[in-house]
Amino acid sequence: MTDSLVACPECDALHERRELAPGTKARCVRCGAVLYRRSYLEPDHQLALVTAAILIYLIANSFPIVDLEIQGRSNSTTLVGSVLALWREGREIVAVLVFATTQLFPLVDLGVLFALLLMIRRDRPALAFAPMLRFLQALRPWGMIEVFMLGIVVALVKLSNMAEVVPGIALWAFGLLTVLLAVILSLDLRSLWRAGERVVVRPRRRLRPKQSVHP
Amino acid sequence: MSAAPTTSSSEARVTTAAQAGLVACPHCHLVCRDTAARDGYGDGRVRCPRCAGRLHPRKVDSLSRTWALLIAAAILYIPANAFPVMQTSTLLSTQNDTILSGILYFWNTGSPELAVLIFTVSILVPLLKLATLSTLAVSIQRGARSRADQRARLYRIVEFVGRWSMLDVFVVALMVGLVHFQGLAVIQAGPGAAAFGAVVVLTMLAAHSFDPRMIWDRAHRPRRGRDPKKRLVFGTRHG
Fold first, then answer.
1. Given CB atoms, is A191 within the 8 Å cutoff of chain B?
2. Which domains does chain B carry?
3. What does each C-alpha distance from A175 to A179, B44, B181, B187, B211 come to in angstroms?
4. ipTM
5. Model-level pTM greater than 0.95?
6. Domain boundaries, chain A
């Protein structure tokens, strides 16, 4: 067990760990994969960003994204409204997929990251740290706010041909959220394992196979 | 800026964790001593001393899982493109749009750049993902040794672009939420939308379950069947 070595996640080549300057990344000499990065932002700055992102997330989901007007009748939808409409007309799978990737996972991602950064800030051992960070790593690829933002743009272009489109508050909020998330997601979760070195509660004894169970 | 390799910078002399008797924790990336030789990896009994996660030198059952997910995705790819993803009902008519006809709509109504974008993420990317991951899996099963760096790059691209295929699903969801003017125009999602979403999720899972380290493992393993001493050794029965 050693913290001075890094194995490339994509080709398993061993490297010695070197401290990086802020904003730089270490790449594997063999396959070029990113081994680890150092953000410009310290955990405290990240905490501030995550707090802001959670607030903007709430705004983005409480207000209509756009207002649509056809022949004097207008209609607007929030993200939840879209998901509910899908659910009501019997497209449950699509509804769940959209809800999970654009609402549930991004919110859980931000919430868990907020908790982890708080734990690092307190700098005291926390039992939940390791399981939460592992959970966050598994969850991360499934939050798709930035793809959704592009989806909004495409839908608006499509609708502008047939109706009057008035951007809503949530549209701007989603735009801002996309930018903030791009910064937050560029934080290398692997660096949190090192930042939280004193927070992780290590298993007390080696987990050994139980001979009785596995004869 | 790059980290220092433990040996020389020439590619051939890179030492892998596996060769050094080490294993990187798949969860917290801590490089640990590989005690599997003594204890065996079965049932996840070897745990990381930092995060208590299960240690595996390579992703478990990587190729069979990748294949299973790829086959499922390939099957669903057919309904995803054959069935309509969106149904537009107006006073006069009902129009069913598949993914391809949605692209043609953009092409014909003066947004060719959007047509190209959606064609890329909805048709090209899923197809290329299926083809690329299958090719990579086959190359590993056949013990391919050449162009490991290019295959590794292909994998990285596939993993990066996969999520963007969800674009069409989100567009449909927004249209459904926005356009319901009873008696005037109503948009509903079609059966193709769920199939298409499933294709994206399955190909993403397939990319996740593929272990790119296998590419390099085979590339640097001694050729099979070249050792004359080993050549004529037949397996003896166990037990």
1. no
2. 11-57 (no CATH), 62-219 (1.20.140)
3. 7, 43, 27, 25, 34
4. 0.86
5. no
6. 1-38, 41-195
